[in-house]
Amino acid sequence: MNFDFAPSWEKNYYLPVFMKGFPIRTHHWESLPPAVAWDEKKEMLLRNTTCSFSMIRRRRYPILVFTTLLLTALLYNKLYHPFAPLPRDAHPQGRGEFDGTWNYTRDAKNLQMTESQCTQAFPDLYKEIDRAVEDRRLNHITLKEIEDMPQEDDGFLRPMIYDQQLYLINATYGINSRGEASLSALHRAILTSPEPLPNIEFTMMVDDLAESANPRWTYSRQKSMSSLWLMPDFAYWSWPEPKIGAYREIQMKAEAMDAKVPWDSKIDKLVWRGASLEVLVREQLVNATRGKSWADVKMLVWSDDAKGKSHDAITMDGHCQYKYMAHTEGISYSSRLQNLQNCRSVIVAHKLSWLQHHHHLMVSSGPNQNFVEVAKDFSDLDQAMEDLRSGAEGKHLKAEQIAENNVKTFREWYLTPAAEACYWRQLIRGYASVSFEPEFYKDNGMGEKTQWRGLPVESYLLMRTMEWRLQ
């Protein structure tokens, strides 16, 4: 039998890679007798098979490595699903599917609830709004009251909502980014409202102290300050200056920490960190806990060269590692409280003098107890901690149940993004019900009302100024 092989394997460039090295026939089977052709075909098949096995033996290690990697990748994908989408309940979805019954997983980020749905979802949220409305029921707010307010106080803002748009009529420089944070939160509540909101004109004060005889939107008030309307704290948007971050970020990190450190693994101590601010109640807390085995209380000095500053500081979610967290007021109220209310831990607070929009939801006794209240000077703190740590039924619920009530009431209900949006919109409606109808235009100096009275809030938030010149 005469085989005519290709002169060189290297010249088989026109063949697929896996066929290079195979012998190539140059004559046609049809030119041979059938019996001879069949014998040649069998011999050719045998040669090709032998050559194939020889190539596999020579390349068995690369093939083995490739096969191993392929099987490993398939097994990993089957077991761990690295490319699978997140489950629907991994984080609250906010899909606008509220059905009349509050569900944290489904509704927490739903910013598009109607007024009726907001009332169903948060029936106890609006106590401060109802109080302020009732206070002006027979004595409606006038434009003169707004005009008579000092327009140059630090942290003063004069917004207007007109035809579903937020404008700014006047603004002064305030503390850090508080004003921008509150305007951003209010703007979001307006934009996401599924129903039209009324036109209003009002003033906001973003300083710690905002006492006024005239109606003013503020973060906190004392009980005697009935003229003030409470709005959500600026930190519900974000508090970047002390690197605390966005409020939703705080909540997600607190939730992750609670999942990582369950109750039985939490540190069995009372934790507190804060600056002195020369506030008596903070000094009293430090004195009441000095030398106590159950206390981890330290005063911080907020300066760049302060020794031990980074060592003693604790992140907000780091507080969730402790079973007990102390809270004190500052110059007036303290934004710390709403952050602590995101931890599955027990808040121990003195009797509060300053009220925020959600403080009426804090319960100090009974089956719904969600914090522990002690004396203003912390004189009974030692006994309160002994009761909590002993786990005995008595004046308070068991500590773990108080911690659970704290999370269920605040992080998973009344301090969610959905609750904040509902509160802002109800605040607008309540204020409008006892106030005047604002005018959009003012006199242009020629006897015609054609000039806008306000600047769209989007421009103010970007420029942080009411006026600027074209270069």
From TrEMBL:
Q: Which residues form the Glycosyl transferase CAP10 domain?
A: 196-436
> InterPro entries under this entry?
CAP10, O-Glucosyltr/Glycosyltrsf_90
User: Which SMART domains does the entry link to?
Assistant: CAP10
Family annotation (Pfam families): Glyco_transf_90
**Protein name in the entry:** Related to DUF821 domain protein
**Organism of this sequence:** Rhynchosporium graminicola
